């Protein structure tokens, strides 16, 4: 695999919003979705916030609504100046239920063409999991993204170098020049974790499922919920979209490069509290969507991709696990990849395509409809309580 891992500038926060409080936080959700960057008043900080490009485009933003929670990953300045004030005005008990991560996170984008999706998730997360680094992983239409605590940035670099990556000064990225393997990865932290990291992927999987079972995490699917992964169309500047300021002094912004129908569809979907919607915005990519198929009609012809696809998410409610838990993504994905290989003769051509979505307090493994049924059969026996 020729993977390239690049650092996205900025410090980011994870925000957990319980579903029963979703409507109370809809205004800041829409505010971060549509950063106007224009003139501000004393109570409108957008023009002063960090994390936007010169054309007011987010360096990274993920908004996910699932059957477990609403989760936001945004630049810390937006978390503190847009979300925190609204949360603080909620009734005391409600305010306690919404959480903004105390620690900040950094985001790495991963370009890794040429590898089967499930193996990619496993191989990209293994070096970090086995170095004792907690991560969040988001698969999108174009790119994979890894979130790690800001304090672990140096350790991440050391772990990748130990795994055979090389740092490219020209690209400011870590590049894997050779196929990755599952050899032992030494821990490179100056302050080793209280529990020694696992010595191999098999041990990591055992630890992961032991931790999940101890916390009574049982994977489940939502009846009738089917997803598609797609992309918003980008508008190519032409006569109707000049690349420089027009005669009327209009300054081009990111809104000039997207289809307004896409954002009307997003606002319509978010306003009705969807069963499932995950939107990822990054400066280098067009908007990426993982969305409930029943909402596609809201978007008309503003999206591209396999809208006839049929993906089913398997959910893991991780609310009782600490944010610093390690190895969850790699352990679960690794087990499923192994199971898929054992059943390879039964797989369809798309059956083994696996995506992963980390949210603030949950995880979702996304597979084809057939693959999801087999994956659930593989996971449940390892996590169901043993009858006494």
UniProtKB/TrEMBL annotation:
Source species, domain of life: Eukaryota
InterPro entries: ACT-like_dom_sf, CASTOR_ACT_dom, CASTOR_mTORC1
BP GO terms, sorted: amino acid metabolic process; carboxylic acid biosynthetic process
Region of interest: Disordered: 178-200
Name of one Pfam family that matches: ACT_7
Every CASTOR ACT domain range: 101-160
Full protein name: CASTOR ACT domain-containing protein
Upper lineage: Eukaryota, Fungi, Dikarya, Ascomycota, Pezizomycotina
């Amino acid at each position: 695999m020729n993977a390239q891992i690049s650092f996205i500038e900025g410090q980011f926060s994870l925000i957990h919003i319980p579903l029963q409080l979703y409507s109370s936080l809809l205004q800041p959700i829409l505010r971060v979705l549509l950063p106007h960057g224009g003139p501000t008043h004393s109570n409108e900080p957008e023009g002063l916030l960090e994390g936007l490009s010169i054309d007011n485009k987010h360096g990274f933003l993920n908004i996910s609504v699932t059957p477990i929670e609403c989760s936001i990953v945004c630049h810390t300045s937006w978390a503190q100046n847009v979300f925190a004030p609204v949360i603080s005005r909620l009734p005391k008990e409600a305010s306690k239920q919404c959480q903004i991560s105390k620690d900040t996170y950094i985001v790495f984008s991963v370009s890794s063409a040429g590898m089967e999706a499930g193996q990619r998730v496993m191989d990209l997360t293994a070096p970090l999991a086995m170095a004792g680094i907690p991560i969040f992983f988001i698969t999108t239409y174009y790119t994979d993204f890894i979130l790690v605590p800001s304090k672990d940035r140096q350790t991440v670099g050391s772990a990748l170098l130990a795994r055979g990556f090389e740092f490219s000064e020209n690209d400011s990225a870590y590049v894997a020049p050779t196929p990755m393997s599952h050899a032992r990865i030494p821990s490179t932290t100056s302050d080793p974790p209280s529990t020694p990291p696992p010595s191999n992927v098999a041990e990591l999987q055992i630890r992961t499922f032991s931790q999940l079972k101890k916390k009574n995490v049982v994977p489940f699917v939502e009846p009738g919920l089917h997803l598609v992964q797609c992309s918003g169309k980008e508008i190519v500047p032409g006569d109707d979209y000049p690349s420089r300021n027009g005669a009327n002094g209009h300054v081009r912004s990111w809104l000039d490069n997207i289809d307004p129908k896409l954002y009307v569809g997003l606002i319509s979907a978010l306003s009705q509290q969807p069963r499932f919607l995950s939107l990822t915005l990054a400066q280098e990519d067009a908007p990426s969507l993982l969305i409930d198929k029943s909402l596609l009609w809201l978007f008309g012809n503003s999206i591209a991709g396999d809208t006839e696809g049929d993906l089913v998410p398997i959910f893991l409610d991780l609310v009782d696990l600490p944010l610093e838990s390690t190895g969850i993504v790699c352990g679960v994905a690794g087990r499923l990849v192994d199971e898929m290989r054992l059943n390879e003769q039964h797989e369809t051509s798309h059956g083994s395509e696996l995506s992963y979505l980390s949210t603030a307090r949950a995880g979702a493994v996304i597979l084809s409809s057939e693959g999801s049924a087999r994956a659930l059969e593989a996971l449940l026996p390892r996590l169901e309580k043993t009858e006494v």
